[in-house]
Amino acid sequence: MSDSDADFIVVGAGTAGCVLAARLSANPASRVLLLEAGGAERTPAMTVPNAWPETLGSAADWANVTTPQADAGPVLLPRGRTLGGSSAINALAHVRGHRACYDSWPQGWRFGDLLPYFLRSERTAGQDPALRGTHGPVPVAAVSEPHPAARAFAEALTAMGYPRTDDLSGRRQEGVAWADLAMADGQRVSAADAYLRPVLGRPNLTVFTDCLVTGLRLRQGRCVGVGYVRGGVPRTARAAEVVVCAGAIGSPQLLMLSGIGPADELRSLGIEPAADLPAVGASLQDHPVIVVSYAARMPLPASRYNNGEVYAAVRSAPDASYPDLHLFPILLPVAPAGHEPPAAGYALVAAIVAPDSRGSVRLASAAPDAAPVIDPGFLTDPRDTARLEAGLRIVRQAGASPAFDAVREREIWPGPGIATAAALRGYLRRGVGSYYHPVGTCAIGAVVDASLRVHGVTGLRVADASVIPVIPNAHPNATVYAIAEKAADMIGVPGASTG
Ligand SMILES: Cc1cc2nc3c(=O)[nH]c(=O)nc-3n(C[C@H](O)[C@H](O)[C@H](O)COP(=O)(O)OP(=O)(O)OC[C@H]3O[C@@H](n4cnc5c(N)ncnc54)[C@H](O)[C@@H]3O)c2cc1C
């Protein structure tokens, strides 16, 4: 006998889980139970847009690290552990990938299929309403008063011949653009703020925080509920359908803990396989970054936004089918891991946003509270080393250009001694980090079908960043909102409103 029953159990109150819980509970006849490992607190660091780096390493962050990457050692891989999940600690950027990227996804998930859900989720103003939503729950604000170093970066890239675009999520998805951010009235709006908090009073919606889901309950090929620990007490909840929204790391981890994954590997950890699905945890994709650090002539003002403010989507080579690099500033004195940052300064970053490298998420043990083994495989495909080198050269050229004369004192890292191709590659292999965008570990086609149902198990879907088959060439959060909105429709509440 279980101690709480529902029609739907949603595991994880992150970007996707908040959307699913709100949309599914819009039907008063559906009882929805949302289970989240993190707490419900909304701290100042989660609300003030430029304070998001303070959430890293806090109670709201799982604070994972990867296996050693290239020559860099383990790199930080934060992910949200709180109502709102990663959308409550992220850098607020609300950007869509290039339509050509979605058009490489399986049938039913291409740009034209996703567009209604992009539109449904967001609330923009002043953009093309055929391509941008105007009435959705997530308010989107553009940067209008940029930081001096952000302005210098935009001017430098424009002078180098990169085009400006007024909307990377609109008609022209290439070039230099002021960032679109998920914020309103000077504050972050997370998925919890946009979707969940407004509906917490619904009698058919129950939300348990500080509640770690430890396994799925499977009976004869059907998922009938979950096991969880709350207040130190193990419990069980049953439902007609379980929707796993634990994110690109948490979802494959939970499936594998429950026997759904590579059977031999699971057996070796003492887990009885329930469905042999080798693709669970495979194909992890993330965007690798490299940072160039500068000392500033004078202390710089704080960013009024997300410490980024401007993004450029460019191609590392003319034959790239869509922009494969993001270039952006960090409006804080930062340096690559292991390097000393300047007292006053800023950084310029190149990120590969269409990588060929693939990695994996594997269990370290059968213990549900053990961190999994996360290997994004950065730079394992040599084409990615060439891409990142190209990006590094562009941002250094921009950083050295006259547009920065008023703010730049000098480049600190890698510094003028690093100039040859071999030296640049050594620097980026030692300094590679993550843009914090893991996806792809329960991919549509490989792990779930086009309706997001897990192959070989009934009553179980996955709907979050893990189902993404090819990583968007942009920050993923806007895409996860669209996926979750589409999932809500598939599960049976077409056109449901959060109100
Ligand atoms: C520091 C940082 C900066 C980022 N910046 C940006 C950005 O500017 N723009 C952008 O688009 N994207 C950004 N991202 C990425 C983006 O936020 C994520 O891709 C997106 O939020 C993923 O949504 P999700 O629903 O798949 O997972 P998440 O939002 O991570 O949600 C998963 C939820 O499941 C919970 N969970 C996991 N396992 C369990 C379990 N066993 N039991 C119970 N609960 C569980 C977690 O605690 C979490 O709340 C950033 C991410 C980070 C960490």
Give the N-to-C terminal Cα separation: 34 Å
Shape: globular
Radius of gyration: 22 Å
Mean pLDDT value: 96
Largest sheet: 7 strands, mixed
Q: Would you count the extended β strands for me?
A: 27
Number of domains: 2
Secondary structure tally, helices: 11
Provide the CATH topology of the largest domain.
FAD/NAD(P)-binding domain
- Percent strand: 25-35%
What is the oligomer described by this structure? single chain
- Proportion of residues in helical segments: 10-25%
Low-confidence segments, ≥5 residues, pLDDT <50? 494-499
CATH architecture of the largest domain: 3-Layer(bba) Sandwich
Question: What structural class is derived from the secondary structure elements?
Answer: alpha+beta
CATH class of the largest domain: Alpha Beta
Q: What ligands does this structure carry?
A: flavin-adenine dinucleotide
Name of the CATH superfamily of the largest domain: FAD/NAD(P)-binding domain
Task: Give an account of the 3D structure.
α1 (15-24) runs parallel beside α11 and α4 (111-121) crosses α11 (477-491). 56% of the residues are buried. The protein is α+β, with helices and mostly antiparallel strands and 499 residues long. β13 and β14 form a beta hairpin. The strands form eight sheets. Strands 1, 2, 12, 13, 14, 15 and 27 form a seven-stranded mixed sheet that branches. Strands 8, 19, 20, 21, 22, 25 and 26 form a seven-stranded antiparallel sheet that branches. Strands 18-23-24 form a three-stranded antiparallel sheet. The chain has helices at residues 15-24, 44-47, 99-102, 111-121, 148-159, 191-196, 247-257, 263-268, 382-399, 421-431, 477-491; strands at residues 4-11, 32-35, 64-69, 73-77, 122-123, 138-139, 141-142, 175-178, 180-181, 183-184, 187-188, 205-208, 211-219, 222-230, 233-244, 260-261, 275-276, 282-284, 288-296, 310-314, 325-330, 345-352, 359-362, 373-375, 408-413, 433-434, 460-462. The chain is built from eleven helices and 27 strands. Bound molecules: flavin-adenine dinucleotide (FAD). Flavin-adenine dinucleotide (FAD) is lined by residues 11-17, 35-38, 78-81, 85-87, 89-93, 212-213, 245-248, 250, 254, 436-437, 464-465, 475-478, 480.
